[in-house]
Amino acid sequence: MAEQLQSQGKNLVSFPQFQHDGETQVKSDFIQYNLDVSTDSRWFIANTHPMARIRLPYVQELGEFVTGQNYMTTRTHLPSFLLKITLDGEGFLRYNNQEYYTQKGEFFLIDCRQPHYYSTSPRSDFWNVIWIHFWGGDAQEYYKCFLEANHGSPKSVLRIPESVELIRNLIRDYSAEFYTDYQTDIKASAQISTLLSNCVLSVLEHEDKLLLQTPPKFVFEVRNYIAEHYQERITLDFLAEKFYVNKFYLHKQFHLYLHTTPREFQKNLRINKAKEFLRASTLSIGDIAEALGFDTPSYFISSFRKAEGKTPLQFRHEWGA
């Protein structure tokens, strides 16, 4: 079987069969797996250029498997992100002390530095899955965006099916007997970013559908009030009393529909107005702080630095008044 598989491409990995009690050291503190896959399954290691590994998100391994009932992997401390998309059958994932089943049209995205276990689902005879290991660049930030949008869950429905073809394109690139090395890696980095964007957008699209129902009227009334009175002291208790709603419910619904809290919304309005003053006026820092409702100039300076990564004076010097 290994000879047949090796003939398909230069970087194709042969398929040794590890038993459930077998252990091996492969770039991580611990890995144990049973590679129960069909003979037409594909698994490629990408020999990426050193500059790509330093600067860009880059492909480590990728492939497409049709697995048997004994397929499994358990691993920890591997510096890699793993995206697996279920094409048919069903897979199983244990991650962060939670268990997930992935069916056709679903995917999971995990940080392989964390302990994890995945396998063919015990409820299924097979799992047809396409996957990619990647690392580097801004992959970490995309992953954080995905988890934040998906409420901490590694699993979601794939609502942008073109993602499957993107991985197949990468498989074709890295399975070629000769490929353009750095040029291929440059193109791959863009495709990884697109894949990660698709993961986040798949989640956000689902959230948007949930929000098609009409939000409570008070959400926009609160928003409009804050926009008109952003320089005043506004507390959650004050808003709850003014709009006759429980403050915890107000906070939750405001965040659900506007993706921010009332306090953060007001602070962002103040910071944006501060940038207008800093660019288009000669008002002192103290005068700007007072005009925007900050208690003290020092509180204004610290809030501005936290939001913009620089002081108001640094911002003014960069952009001019």
- Kindly identify the CATH topology of the largest domain: Jelly Rolls
Beta-strand residue fraction? 15-25%
How many strands, what sense, and barrel or not for the largest sheet? 10 strands, antiparallel
Mean pLDDT over the residues:
87
SS-derived structural category: alpha+beta
Helix-strand pattern: HEEHEEEEEEEHEHHHHHHHHH
CATH level 1 name of the largest domain:
Mainly Beta
Q: Which ranges are low-confidence, i.e. pLDDT below 50, for 5 or more consecutive residues?
A: 1-27
The number of helices is 12
What is the molecular shape? elongated
End-to-end CA span: 72 Å
How many domain modules?
A: 2
CATH architecture of the largest domain: Sandwich
Counted beta strands: 10
Fill in the keyword field for this structure.
single chain, 321 residues, alpha+beta, Jelly Rolls, Arc Repressor Mutant, subunit A, 10-stranded antiparallel β-sheet, 12 helices, 10 strands
Secondary structure: elements and pairs:
Layout: H1 2-6, E1 30-34, E2 42-45, H2 50-55, E3 58-67, E4 72-76, E5 81-95, E6 98-103, E7 106-111, E8 116-120, E9 127-135, H3 139-149, E10 155-157, H4 162-175, H5 182-210, H6 217-228, H7 236-242, H8 247-258, H9 262-280, H10 285-292, H11 297-308, H12 312-319
Antiparallel strand pairs: 1-4, 2-3, 3-9, 4-8, 5-6, 5-7, 5-8, 5-9, 7-10
Helix pairs in contact: 3-5, 4-5, 6-8, 6-9, 9-10, 9-12, 10-11
